[in-house]
Design goal:
Blueprint (H helix, E strand, L loop, with lengths): L1 H7 L14 H8 L5 H9 L2 H8 L1 H8 L3 H29 L3 H20 L7 H12 L5 H10 L4 H22 L12 H38 L2 H10 L15
Helix pairs in contact: 2-10, 3-10, 3-11, 4-10, 4-11, 5-6, 6-8, 7-8, 7-11, 9-10
Length: 255
């Protein structure tokens, strides 16, 4: 089993499980700019949906639902969120398409965010308001896809370890940002806050598109260099290169 895993991914034999990452190796991993697009996505992609999710129970009580009904009305969004997240992750593997599949969550949320910005949720029918917010916070979450995506594009144990931490730090920071978008002077409609969420959602769609373009162009450039090399030059490169992880010319970024 171990030999098969190493044959499929030789980078997994770079370090053993008791080998520490030195400050120099940590710095080398942190300055790998090819993973910065994924860190930025981790910082931004959940914010438009997490903000309404944090205020969901408070919003339901403001709509006129009692405590017991509020607790029951939260359940469908949790169940659907799990189902949609698993389905999206499976779809990404099925289509071998990470970027545009992960973008589906933003496209899903945008109409509901526009609705919340356009209409006063406190003035419309409370069941319509509940339905809109339930569908919004049930969004197909791309977090599992992006964790795997980050790991694939690391291509070394050292970088994979550090990049997973940096990505997770971005996601946790986004939760702090999300908690501060709705402000006291903007309640109860939160029109300014919802406008910010719409802008963030549109920006995230642009970020996914730019990430796709970046990795496609990066792969094309490497393919061009690799294609001009003879078979002998390729063998020499593989045997003697000092390039490591995702810096290798024979590595292609997943996107």
């Amino acid at each position: 089993m171990i030999n098969r895993i190493i044959r499929e991914d030789p980078s997994k034999s770079d370090m053993h499980n008791r080998q520490a990452i030195t400050p120099r190796l940590l710095w080398e991993s942190m300055k790998d700019y090819d993973l910065y697009p994924l860190y930025i996505l981790g910082l931004c992609f959940q914010t438009p949906m997490v903000t309404p999710k944090m205020y969901f129970t408070l919003s339901l009580k403001r709509f006129g639902f009692g405590t017991f009904k509020t607790n029951l009305l939260v359940v469908p969004s949790q169940v659907m969120h799990i189902i949609f997240m698993l389905s999206l992750t499976y779809l990404a593997e099925l289509r071998s398409e990470l970027t545009f599949t992960a973008m589906i969550g933003e496209l899903w949320a945008l109409p509901f965010l526009i609705f919340m910005y356009t209409f006063d949720m406190n003035a419309i029918n409370k069941w319509i308001a509940w339905l809109v917010m339930t569908l919004l916070i049930s969004w197909p979450d791309a977090h599992p896809i992006q964790v795997s995506w980050n790991s694939r594009n690391s291509n070394s144990v050292r970088l994979r370890t550090v990049s997973a931490s940096l990505y997770n730090m971005g996601v946790q920071t986004s939760n702090i940002i999300a908690a501060n978008i709705y402000r006291e002077d903007d309640k109860p409609r939160y029109r300014r806050g919802n406008r910010v969420l719409v802008i963030l959602c549109v920006s995230n769609i642009a970020l996914y598109t730019l990430t796709k373009v970046y990795y496609v162009m990066k792969n094309k450039r490497r393919e061009s260099i690799w294609g001009r090399m003879t078979g002998e030059e390729r063998e020499e490169y593989v045997a003697g290169t000092s390039d490591k992880g995702n810096r290798r010319l024979d590595f292609r970024f997943a996107h």
